[in-house]
Amino acid sequence: MMEKYVFGIDIGGTTVKCGLFTVKGELLEKWEIPTRTENNGAAILPDVADTVLKKIQEKGLAKEEIAGIGIGVPGPVNEQGEVPGAVNLHWGYVNLAGDMEKMTGLRVKAGNDANVAALGEMWKGGGAGCQSIVMVTLGTGVGGGIINNGKIVTGAHGAGGEIGHIHVTDDVECNCNCGNHGCLEQVTSATGITYLANRRLKKDDRPSMLRGGEVNAKTVFDAVKAGDELAKEVAEEFGKYLGTALASVACVADPEVFVIGGGVSKAGQIILDYIKKYYAQYAFMTCKQASFALAKLGNDAGIYGAAKMLL
Amino acid sequence: MMEKYVFGIDIGGTTVKCGLFTVKGELLEKWEIPTRTENNGAAILPDVADTVLKKIQEKGLAKEEIAGIGIGVPGPVNEQGEVPGAVNLHWGYVNLAGDMEKMTGLRVKAGNDANVAALGEMWKGGGAGCQSIVMVTLGTGVGGGIINNGKIVTGAHGAGGEIGHIHVTDDVECNCNCGNHGCLEQVTSATGITYLANRRLKKDDRPSMLRGGEVNAKTVFDAVKAGDELAKEVAEEFGKYLGTALASVACVADPEVFVIGGGVSKAGQIILDYIKKYYAQYAFMTCKQASFALAKLGNDAGIYGAAKMLL
């Protein structure tokens, strides 16, 4: 019997997102279950196995029709699908792929959630049609995922694609969450843009619509769209840091496309324009051909990418 | 019949290096033929096919005993073993793997020479025992090769691992060969170290054994070893540029080991010490575990890596 279906699971700190897909990538059904982190998260995998097996029964599927289960987790995952530890799930070492295979009798693959989301965007999102992409998630932090020739670049210590911690400046006062100083994340995440804007506002008393109101990534880019000169300066600074860093990333990974996602990317095309301006200036010759796209799958990128790992 | 042998070929602008290996990686025989670049390099592949077929005959090998032929070339190579063009070989588009398979009846794989050398150092050189390495070649330029889980990161435009063109400074007067400004290569290649030393010497008239003599990467590191303070300042600058850049590379590729080769690396362990000092300062937490090693295979890295592509 031909394989027709595949499950994509994205385990987060509070909920587990689940998707049933066709092997062509059509999302047939999407649902969530809570992530039970008590007792070192001992119930998480049994809960996932249970919801998958119930769905198979409910839909009347034959196991031979199912390519397997792909799972993304917030932590490092090695090639064998083992997790050395995942703080947000309260996990120590877990043999994720092995345990799930035993519980379900299905083939299982596992990966880090940021890398898996990149794979999802490559399959059905902003990088569709490409085989080598760099996904950049501009949220509270800056996450990344590198796909080379269709395969996730995991790295030796699970830090492949941790581009938020590239050192980009000696010119910030405080430390990054990682303990270093001057990381990309400190100046281009949502928090980082707020920091840049507040620093610029303090520098002098040039008028700006940002003064007196709430300052965050959204208000900054709204002000840019409204023609606010001070906000534009902040956007240039953001673009220079991120564009230059992505030019460095291109010297390592050389993607076809950079896919930009996360909350900050909701500002739209204008974000890409500021990044591309500086990327074009600093990128190596052949890498200048790379294109830039907004992420398309939002919170579903994880389940798409998880499913794709099996195919 | 079991596969016992494999050929590794490294095509350079003037000579083609050839190696016959056992599949375990023992180099049985090594020889060279000239690279005939006339007529758009039309003779290069027939010459290689010819020397391989002759060696098979001379040794009395059966084709079934041979795993195949791996070939490194100075230019981009895609996953199908096609070369869009290679200036030093006077090649336009060449279907390298396809043509060689037809000419020899053997399985053929091809890759970019810098990436292939990295694979060689991973197999039998400074990165032996590892699966994820970054190879840095400090010669006239700065070359790089990234191996992730045993596979070369080629990139979409053949620029994977072109780490010499990471932008590291706005503080150099001249342009890089690539057309950009402030590339890693401009300050950490052999030429780059000479540039840094001459710039430092001009800054003031502090005494140094480098004054009056020849200034190059070798004399600089000889002076460092002799305790010359000015030369030490140059080495610190070199270490800061390279260590910081490799910390950025680690945020993308996260290798187990950085293998440092090329002419500059002949200065030995002292090179690694200066690089590691700044790498430790800027690397992301888990990436600090990466180790540093000197390359071991010298000019043979290419034939080792070429052979390894088949195995």
Automatic annotation (TrEMBL), chains A, B:
Keyword Nucleotide-binding included in the entry's annotation: yes
UniProt GO molecular function: glucokinase activity
Broad enzyme group: transferase
Pfam name, any one: ROK
Key word Kinase present: yes
Alphabetical keyword list: ATP-binding, Kinase, Nucleotide-binding, Transferase
Coiled coil regions in record: none
Enzyme Commission number, as recorded: 2.7.1.2
Source species, domain of life: Bacteria
NCBIfam families: ROK_glcA_fam
PANTHER family hit by this protein: BIFUNCTIONAL UDP-N-ACETYLGLUCOSAMINE 2-EPIMERASE_N-ACETYLMANNOSAMINE KINASE, ROK (REPRESSOR, ORF, KINASE) FAMILY
Family from the record: Belongs to the ROK (NagC/XylR) family.
Protein's UniProt name: Glucokinase
Protein's organism: Muricoprocola aceti
